[in-house]
C-alpha cells in the first residue's frame, strides 16, 4: 500500500461524500492518453501529483536527474494559491471551488521540488498555503478543514522541514503540529502500546494503526520521506510527554508488529484476505531507521528484497520510490535490491532521466521498460462505491498511500 494516503483518503471521501450527488464509473477509457511527462501509465486522477513527487524525490535521492519535462509537469500542477490538487488534467484552467485540494499531494510536491532545487517560488507558495489551512489543534487533515490525522500532519511536517521551516514553531492558536501528534499517540500498555492512531473514532477513542504509526514516528522526529539512520534510543515505552518520546514509543510498537508477522506488516483492510502490506512495511523501515532502530529495519528491508518485486511491478512509480527510500534509509543498494535495479525500474515508468556521472550508454539503458503502474486507487474507489459514498476525488497512498 502507498502508506501515507490510504486512511487519509477514506476519511476525506467520508468528509466530502455527502456533498457529491452521484458516483460516476471511475474506470478510465482504454484509449485515454495521459501526459507523457507523467510517471506511470494508469489514470492519475487520484494520485498524479503524489506519484510524480515520489518518483522525482526518489530519483534525486539516488543521484539521478529527472527529465526536465517531468519536473515542469509537477510545477504546472500548482494552483494560484500555492496548493496542489491530486491531479489537474488541464493546468491552464484556473483552480476553483470544485478543485479538490490535497494537503498530502502539496506536501509531497514540496519535498520533491525542494530536493531538486531551483523552485523556491513554487515551494514558498505551497508552504504558505499549508500554513493557511492548519487546524486549530495544530494539525492537518487530508483536505482543508478536515479533521487532523496523523498521516497528513506528519507529511506536512516533512514538507515544512524540507523547506527550512521549524515545524514545532508553526502554530495555529498556540498549537503546533507536534501538539496534534501527541494527542493521537496511544498510551503505553495494552494493544496500542505507544502506537499512533490515524484519527479518534466517533467516540473519541484511539486505535493503534501501523500505517499511521510509521508516519507519526517520522512526523514526531521532524523528518520527511528521505532519512538517514538516526541515533539509537534505548528508551522503553513511557508517557509521550515529548515528540521524541512519542517517536520512540511508536518505533517500539512497529518493531513488535514487524517481528510478530515475520519482519513485515500485514494488511489491516477490513474484509480483505490476510496478506503482507509491502508499502506500509517499507514506510516502517524508514521510520525505524530514522529513530535509530536499525536492527529491525535491516531485517525488514531484507524481507522486502526477497518478496516485494511483484508488488512493486504491479503498483508502479510510488512503490518503486518507497522501496528506494527504505533502501536508502538502511544503506542498502537500490540498484541491487534482491537482484533488482529499483532505479532503472522506476526510470522505466516515465521519461528517461539523466543520471549524474553515468555514461551515455548507461543512461540509454534506463529507457528500457520494466515496470507498470497500478497504484491501488481503484480498490478504494470500489469500497466507497459499495458503501454508497459519492467520490469526487481520492488520494499515500498512500495510496487505491495503497496496498504509502
From TrEMBL:
<dbReference type="InterPro" id="IPR001330">
    <property type="entry name" value="Prenyltrans"/>
</dbReference>
<protein>
    <submittedName>
        <fullName>Prenyltransferase/squalene oxidase repeat-containing protein</fullName>
    </submittedName>
</protein>
<keyword id="KW-0677">Repeat</keyword>
<keyword id="KW-0472">Membrane</keyword>
<feature type="domain" description="Prenyltransferase alpha-alpha toroid">
    <location>
        <begin position="53"/>
        <end position="164"/>
    </location>
</feature>
<feature type="region of interest" description="Disordered">
    <location>
        <begin position="348"/>
        <end position="369"/>
    </location>
</feature>
<keyword id="KW-0732">Signal</keyword>
<keyword id="KW-0812">Transmembrane</keyword>
<feature type="transmembrane region" description="Helical">
    <location>
        <begin position="377"/>
        <end position="396"/>
    </location>
</feature>
<feature type="signal peptide">
    <location>
        <begin position="1"/>
        <end position="24"/>
    </location>
</feature>
<dbReference type="Pfam" id="PF00432">
    <property type="entry name" value="Prenyltrans"/>
</dbReference>
<dbReference type="InterPro" id="IPR008930">
    <property type="entry name" value="Terpenoid_cyclase/PrenylTrfase"/>
</dbReference>
<keyword id="KW-1133">Transmembrane helix</keyword>
Amino acid at each position: 500500500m502507498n502508506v501515507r494516503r490510504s486512511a487519509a483518503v477514506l476519511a476525506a471521501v467520508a468528509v466530502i461524500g455527502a456533498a457529491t450527488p452521484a458516483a460516476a464509473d471511475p474506470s478510465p477509457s482504454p484509449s485515454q492518453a495521459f501526459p507523457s511527462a507523467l510517471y506511470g501509465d494508469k489514470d492519475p486522477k487520484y494520485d498524479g501529483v503524489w506519484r510524480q513527487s515520489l518518483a522525482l524525490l526518489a530519483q534525486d535521492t539516488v543521484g539521478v536527474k529527472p527529465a526536465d519535462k517531468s519536473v515542469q509537469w509537477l510545477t504546472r500542477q500548482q494552483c494560484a494559491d500555492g496548493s496542489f490538487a491530486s491531479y489537474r488534467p488541464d493546468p491552464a484552467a484556473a483552480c476553483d471551488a470544485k478543485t479538490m485540494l490535497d494537503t498530502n499531494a502539496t506536501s509531497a510536491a514540496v519535498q520533491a521540488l525542494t530536493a531538486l532545487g531551483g523552485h523556491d517560488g513554487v515551494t514558498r507558495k505551497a508552504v504558505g498555503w499549508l500554513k493557511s489551512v492548519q487546524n486549530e489543534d495544530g494539525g492537518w487533515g487530508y483536505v482543508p478543514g478536515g479533521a487532523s490525522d496523523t498521516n497528513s500532519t506528519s507529511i506536512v511536517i516533512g514538507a515544512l522541514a524540507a523547506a527550512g521551516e521549524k515545524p514545532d514553531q508553526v502554530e495555529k492558536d498556540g498549537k503546533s503540529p507536534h501538539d496534534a501528534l501527541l494527542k493521537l499517540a496511544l498510551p503505553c500498555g495494552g494493544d496500542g502500546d505507544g502506537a499512533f492512531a490515524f484519527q479518534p473514532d466517533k467516540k473519541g477513542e484511539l486505535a493503534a494503526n501501523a500505517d499511521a504509526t510509521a508516519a507519526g514516528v517520522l512526523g514526531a522526529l521532524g523528518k520527511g520521506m528521505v532519512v538517514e539512520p538516526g541515533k539509537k534510543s534505548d528508551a522503553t515505552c513511557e508517557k509521550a510527554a515529548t515528540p521524541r518520546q512519542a517517536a520512540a514509543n511508536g518505533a517500539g510498537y512497529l518493531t513488535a508488529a514487524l517481528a510478530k508477522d515475520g519482519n513485515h506488516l500485514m494488511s489491516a483492510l477490513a474484509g480483505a484476505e490476510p496478506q503482507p502490506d509491502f508499502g506500509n512495511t517499507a514506510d516502517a523501515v524508514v521510520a525505524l531507521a530514522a529513530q535509530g532502530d536499525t536492527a529491525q529495519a535491516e531485517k525488514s528491508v531484507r524481507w522486502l528484497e526477497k518478496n516485494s518485486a511483484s508488488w512493486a511491478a504491479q503498483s508502479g512509480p510510488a512503490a518503486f520510490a518507497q522501496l528506494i527510500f527504505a533502501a536508502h534509509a538502511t544503506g542498502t543498494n537500490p540498484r541491487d535490491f534482491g537482484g533488482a535495479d529499483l532505479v532503472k525500474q522506476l526510470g522505466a515508468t516515465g521519461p528517461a532521466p539523466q543520471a549524474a556521472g553515468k555514461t551515455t550508454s548507461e543512461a540509454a539503458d534506463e529507457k528500457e521498460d520494466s515496470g507498470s503502474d497500478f497504484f491501488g486507487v481503484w480498490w478504494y474507489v470500489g469500497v466507497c462505491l459499495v458503501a454508497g459514498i459519492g467520490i469526487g476525488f481520492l488520494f499515500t497512498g498512500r495510496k487505491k498511500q495503497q496496498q504509502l
